[in-house]
């Protein structure tokens, strides 16, 4: 079941029927007088002193007479050594006689959803297992293209980091907000629609439609401090949507959000783990010169893998690894909705990878970016770590030529307008294609 909260704010509506959602375990613990933990992955709209999550946590503290303690991420610029990559000392937001609610606010101005999953910020995840994880991202990730109206690139920017958070804490309840609309434009609308799409496809991912609450108030300027950032009143509106969701939830410690990288599936791609390696590249895979592919036993996603594939650009921005879907593989996907995923490791000394799906969808050949907004912009080398690139819910036209070469995945380790200055590799661990609107990693461990 997918828990949905459509901007319901207590006091403005009639009675709300309790339901199971990602807030249910948190409510069960606080109601029982037990300590609880919230993890928030946010951007600058979550960073202010009186931000939405400080206010939401304080509302919970008032309701349960709980002590509320905040750990806020202390870094304040993403690409400069101007702040520690660690949480600041804890701040008590509310004293209480009951349990302790601890909030880890991993918010970074200018950041994207993947930043807190980078190796450079490993301290962000060295916390007790959360009773609730909240993803509050999107404003810095709205530059994606929408070929043929396909919002997959926007969903990918969130699906990859969400999958890594789920892998970190399997089964932990996950909630995603829709953030807020931009005050003077509709520029954020495609991100909003991408988040709604993602919530529809992901089982037990709870949606808090904070965007709708701002629209319902006519995007009142009194809720903003500029075109994008809510002020204290706007942050309170976000907090009250979350609090309304909390009051509507049934206390149930057993609610879980499944980890999509662990979901079992039949991979429609043969040799997606590169176990058959019979030449200069794994069987079924193609390299463009001067790129090279080697086995790396030093860098693997988990001990269950003997090695990963390491691609080096060797001075060329166009060097790439290709997977052409032809014949039997193509036939298995034609006329169906398919989701693709690539488990890769970015390198801080190299440009972020450029991973694309080329497919005929909606009557035309589309180029769908799978990775552009995961860790950084296409020209910035600053973050490293494992991440998922995805193209999810892609309708593959039934009339493609199964023996042609116009349906493929392309992975470029050093793509750019100039040759890359580094030859550090891009690591690829697994590539999957499954039928349906949600990628499935079929991983164990």
Task: Give a written overview of the molecule.
The protein is α/β, with parallel strands linked by helices. It folds into two domains: 256 residues, Rossmann fold; 173 residues, Galactose-binding domain-like (Jelly Rolls, Sandwich). It contains seven helices and 18 strands. The strands form three sheets. An eight-stranded mixed beta sheet has the order 1-8-7-6-2-5-3-4, with helices on both faces. Strands 9-12-17-14-15 form a five-stranded antiparallel beta sheet, with no helix packed on it. Strands 10-11-18-13-16 form a five-stranded antiparallel beta sheet. Helix 5 packs across helix 6.
Query: Based on helices, strands and strand pairing, what is the structural class?
Result: alpha/beta
Shape: globular
The CATH topology of the largest domain corresponds to Rossmann fold
First CA to last CA: what distance? Answer: 24 Å
| DSSP helix fraction | 10-25%
Largest sheet strand order: 1-8-7-6-2-5-3-4
CATH architecture of the largest domain: 3-Layer(aba) Sandwich
Number of domains: 2
Q: Which value, in Å, is the CA radius of gyration?
A: 22 Å
């Amino acid at each position: 079941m997918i828990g949905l909260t459509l901007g319901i704010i207590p006091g403005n509506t009639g009675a709300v029927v309790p339901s199971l959602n990602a807030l249910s375990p948190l409510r069960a613990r606080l109601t029982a007088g037990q300590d609880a933990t919230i993890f928030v992955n946010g951007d600058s709209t979550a960073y202010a002193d009186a931000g939405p999550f400080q206010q939401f946590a304080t509302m919970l503290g008032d309701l349960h007479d709980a002590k509320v303690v905040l750990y806020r991420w202390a870094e304040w610029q993403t690409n400069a050594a101007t702040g520690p990559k660690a949480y600041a000392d804890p701040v008590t937001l509310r004293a209480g006689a009951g349990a302790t609610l601890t909030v880890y606010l991993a918010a970074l101005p200018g950041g994207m959803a993947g930043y807190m999953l980078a190796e450079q910020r490993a301290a962000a995840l060295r916390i007790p297992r959360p009773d609730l994880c909240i993803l509050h991202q999107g404003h810095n990730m709205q530059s994606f293209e929408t070929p043929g109206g396909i919002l997959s690139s926007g969903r990918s920017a969130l699906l990859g980091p969400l999958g890594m958070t789920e892998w970190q804490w399997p089964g932990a309840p996950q909630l995603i907000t829709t953030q807020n609309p931009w005050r003077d434009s509709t520029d954020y609308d495609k991100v909003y629609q991408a988040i709604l799409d993602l919530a529809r496809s992901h089982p037990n991912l709870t949606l808090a439609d904070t965007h709708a609450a701002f629209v319902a108030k006519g995007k009142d300027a009194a809720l903003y401090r500029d075109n994008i950032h809510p002020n204290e009143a706007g942050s309170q509106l976000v907090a009250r949507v979350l609090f309304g969701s909390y009051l509507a939830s049934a206390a149930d410690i057993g609610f879980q959000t499944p980890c999509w990288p662990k979901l079992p599936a039949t991979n429609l791609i043969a040799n997606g783990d590169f176990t058959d390696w019979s030449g200069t590249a794994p069987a079924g895979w193609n390299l463009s010169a001067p790129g090279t592919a080697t086995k790396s036993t030093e860098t693997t996603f988990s001990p269950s893998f003997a090695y990963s594939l390491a691609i080096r650009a060797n001075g060329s921005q166009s060097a790439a690894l290709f997977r052409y879907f032809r014949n039997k593989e193509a036939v298995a996907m034609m006329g169906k909705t398919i989701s693709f995923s690539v488990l890769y490791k970015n390198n801080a000394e190299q440009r972020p990878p450029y991973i694309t799906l080329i497919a005929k969808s909606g009557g035309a050949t589309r180029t769908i970016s799978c990775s552009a907004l995961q860790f950084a912009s296409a020209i910035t080398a600053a973050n490293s770590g494992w991440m998922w690139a995805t193209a999810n819910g892609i309708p593959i036209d039934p009339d493609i030529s199964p023996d042609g070469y116009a349906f493929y995945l392309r992975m470029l380790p050093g793509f750019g307008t100039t040759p890359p200055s580094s030859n550090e590799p891009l690591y690829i661990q697994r590539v999957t294609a499954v039928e349906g609107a949600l990628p499935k990693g079929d991983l164990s461990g």
